[in-house]
Amino acid sequence: MERISWIDYAKAIGIYFVVLGHLSLPQIGSDFIYSFHMPLFFLLAGITFKTSYDTITFLRKKFHALIVPYFCFSLILFTYWFLAGRHYGADVASGTSTTVLQAIQHIFYGISNDIYPSPLWFLTCLFVCEILFYFILKQKSVILIISEIGILLTAGLTLQILGTECCPRLIWNMDLACYYLPFVALGYVLQKKDFFQFIFKTKWSHGFSFLICALIFLGSFYASCVYQVAPFKNIIDIAPAITGSLVVIQIAKLIPSNKLLSFWGKNTLTLFGLHTIALGFIKAFIVFVLHYDLSIISNCVAINAGISLIALFLLMPVAFLFRRFAPWAIGQKTSL
Questions:
Q1: Prior bond of 240 cis (ω within 30°)
Q2: Which residues, in sequence order, are CB contacts of 100 under 8 Å at separation 6+?
Q3: Mean pLDDT of residues grouped by 10 in the chain (336 residues)?
Q4: Which long-range contacts (CB under 8 A, 24 or more apart) does 283-287 make?
Q5: Which is nearest to 300 in space by CA: 48, 24, 97?
Q6: Inter-residue contact 225 to 28 (CB < 8 Å)
Q7: What is the signed CA dihedral for 285, 26, 125, 222, rounded to 10 degrees?
Q8: What is the DSSP string of 18-82?
Q9: How far is residue 76's CA from residue 329's CA, in Å, rounded to a whole number?
């Protein structure tokens, strides 16, 4: 399948927000980023989702594309945490202590939480999402397909509302997969129905669609902030997640040919898997070389925005080396 440039650009924008979201920002900034940055990747996965494979081939491809990289990056992150992170990282700052056994258990459990190495939860969650969606699409009835997705979404929302105290997290983020599955489905339907070709057809349709999505996003994001502690907040969050993702996609479509964004978009897996290490090295440079306290970057959007860019640039040679010498580790068949 020929790569679509605006998809790569949207991924590049998304990965930048992922990195920025893992730094210390004002609450409104974190809320803004988290309102759409992960749903964006699930929606993009739906846009590129293919059903032309038989079941065994599909499962093998998804395992190679998502689970192999998950364990490869987990091993790298574990090594980094074992040698440095547990002595200088979040464990020390928070006063907690993650044992080696807990870290290893977390790798195989693969869920999203504050214990090492939480950023990789996306890979196992997307794997479960795509497996579920593949088998749901095997149904011949559209009504049955919609019903099954609706049931899973309801289950996902219910589990989030009840919280981990009532419902412990499920292995490989099966609970989160129920929530994110509709985003994969939406991306798939929009692409199949030529939605993007339609809105990108003229400047007027593109501009009108962008305006509508932006207005809905701002309104729903405001509502999400107002009802921050409401039990139904997760339901409200769906609107900014969808419209925010569509806004990013439409911005990406406006970007002229850009080799840097194209490279980031094609290598989001490496950037996603290793950005916490890059941020760790940057923070270490600030503390041990520049002799500044990390409080200087706390809640400073401008500084953290710059640090995020530096982290992505630092990882570019690493991403190139992976694609050149170990493409299998990032789910690729061939090198550059």
A1: no
A2: 82
A3: 86 97 93 96 96 92 96 92 75 66 87 67 96 93 94 91 78 93 97 94 95 97 86 88 97 96 96 94 93 90 96 97 94 66
A4: 284/88
A5: 24
A6: yes
A7: -160
A8: HHHHTS---HHHHHHHHTTHHHHHHHHHHHT----S-HHHHHHHHIIIIIHHHHHHHHHHHHHII
A9: 11
